[in-house]
């Protein structure tokens, strides 16, 4: 080095050079303390390993094991706000209903009567659509949704609504929504695996109408209604999960569901709305100027305008205390909604915190126990709403006397006919009620 070259010492630079060794020493001390803590408390290492193991779930021991489980936050109304304004049925009047056809009919989600008043008709868990033809003859098989159906493969009796049916459900079919065309007498069917189908007034093997949209399969057709112009509106609940895995749609909160429309003259299917969180029941208004559909995950009812200045837009008309299924019109133009009740504060926390859901449902604990831990003890509620979402009637079955899970309420022949996807019977309740 040439000693004649002057050396300048900037105060800030000099300060940095002086502090650098001290900072390095401090960092070393911090690392040393961390090591000491871990050595003194090895359970922290064990806890970290256990948490990592749970989150990774390599043995698929959790309820969501084997699924690409990616929870998201949902757009759901405040639990407190909904429960404060929702009327309750303190007499639990729905529990006064009668059990009909016990262990004769399996998972009758949707109920219908034909244009001649015959019925009820019901779609069953074993893949059949059946019809009641009287006390002497009982139930008869009216229609099938697939030629794959055989009694040996599909008919499991009272076990049809349990997991024993799930392995063959996609082959046997699972008819959910049923509607009669009041002009032709044809029965239209939304089957969760075979899409939208139709069968004539005499029954038989149904004909597929819509199995794909935009070149991709309809994975979970759920419910439908028929417009006077012949168009059929129906819901496709998810593009990710099928019916057997329907619970994961709610746990994950995924919103890939759609409202679809099938146009018979052109035999084409169109997407009306998409990005829906478990779209389920669908019902046209009496004047057919709008339709209502339920969004199960978000516990609400949405109105879709078909006419007027608001045509093509949507409006949330009711936030519900529980998880809605089908929705049906009565003769007055009012809407019966089947609701599996009720939401809890803990469940709302899970909805708003998907990161916690991701950990919670990866615990190696059966789903039934995890549900109880967050206060979910399901029972049935049905509600009658106006076309603006005003609450006209609430009926509850808090003890699950008639049904713990309810799928549909149809008002006909002076009764409420109540279907369920989970039980082996139908419930009826005289209506209007004469309870004092």
Automatic annotation (TrEMBL):
Listed A to Z, the keywords are: Glycoprotein, Membrane, Signal, Transmembrane, Transmembrane helix, Vacuole
Question: Which family, according to UniProt?
Answer: Belongs to the strictosidine synthase family.
Q: Which GO terms describe its cellular component?
A: endomembrane system; vacuole
One annotated GO biological process: pollen exine formation
Q: Name one Pfam family in it.
A: Str_synth
Keyword rRNA-binding annotated:
no
- Origin organism is Olea europaea subsp. europaea
According to the record, the segments passing through the membrane are 37-56
One annotated GO molecular function: hydrolase activity
Q: Where does it localize? A: Vacuole
Identify the InterPro entries for this entry.
6-blade_b-propeller_TolB-like (IPR011042), Strictosidine_synth_cons-reg (IPR018119)
User: Strictosidine synthase conserved region domain spans which residues?
Assistant: 222-308
Q: What is this protein called?
A: STRICTOSIDINE SYNTHASE-LIKE 13
């Amino acid at each position: 080095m040439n000693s004649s070259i002057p050396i300048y010492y900037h105060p800030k630079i000099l300060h940095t050079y002086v502090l650098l060794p001290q900072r390095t020493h401090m960092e070393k001390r911090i690392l040393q303390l961390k090591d000491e803590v871990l050595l003194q408390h090895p359970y922290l290492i064990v806890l970290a390993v256990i948490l990592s193991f749970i989150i990774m779930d390599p043995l698929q021991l959790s309820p969501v094991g084997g699924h690409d489980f990616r929870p998201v936050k949902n757009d759901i109304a405040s639990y407190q706000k909904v429960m404060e304004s929702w009327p309750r049925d303190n007499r639990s009047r729905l529990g006064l209903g009668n059990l009909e056809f016990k262990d004769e009919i399996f998972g009758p989600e949707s109920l219908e009567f034909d244009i001649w008043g015959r019925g009820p008709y019901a779609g069953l868990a074993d893949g059949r659509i059946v019809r009641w033809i009287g006390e002497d003859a009982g139930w008869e098989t009216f229609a099938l949704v697939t030629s794959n159906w055989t009694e040996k493969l599909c008919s499991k009796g009272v076990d049809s609504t349990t997991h024993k049916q799930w392995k063959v459900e996609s082959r046997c079919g699972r008819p959910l929504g049923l509607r009669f065309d009041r002009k032709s007498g044809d029965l239209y069917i939304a089957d969760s695996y075979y899409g939208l189908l139709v069968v004539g007034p005499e029954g038989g093997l149904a004909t597929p109408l819509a199995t794909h949209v935009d070149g991709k399969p309809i994975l979970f057709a759920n419910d439908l209604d028929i417009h006077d112009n012949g168009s059929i509106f129906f819901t496709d609940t998810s593009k990710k999960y099928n019916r057997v895995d329907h619970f994961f749609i709610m746990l994950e909160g995924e919103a890939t569901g759609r409202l679809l429309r099938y146009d018979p003259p052109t035999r084409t299917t169109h997407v009306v709305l998409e990005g829906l969180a478990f779209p389920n029941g669908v019902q046209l208004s009496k004047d057919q100027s709008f339709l209502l559909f339920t969004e199960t995950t978000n516990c609400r009812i949405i109105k879709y305008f078909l006419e007027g200045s608001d045509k093509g837009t949507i409006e949330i008309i009711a936030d519900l205390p529980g998880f809605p299924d089908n929705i049906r019109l009565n003769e007055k133009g009012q809407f019966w909604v089947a609701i599996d009740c009720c939401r809890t504060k803990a469940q709302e926390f899970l909805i708003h915190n998907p990161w916690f859901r991701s950990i919670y449902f990866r615990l190696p604990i059966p789903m039934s126990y995890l549900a109880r831990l967050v206060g979910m003890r399901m029972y049935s509620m049905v509600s009658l709403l106006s076309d603006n979402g005003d609450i006209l009637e609430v009926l509850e079955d808090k003890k699950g006397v008639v049904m713990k899970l309810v799928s549909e309420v149809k008002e006909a022949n002076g009764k409420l006919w109540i279907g369920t996807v989970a039980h082996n019977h139908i419930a009826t309740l005289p209506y209007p009620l004469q309870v004092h």
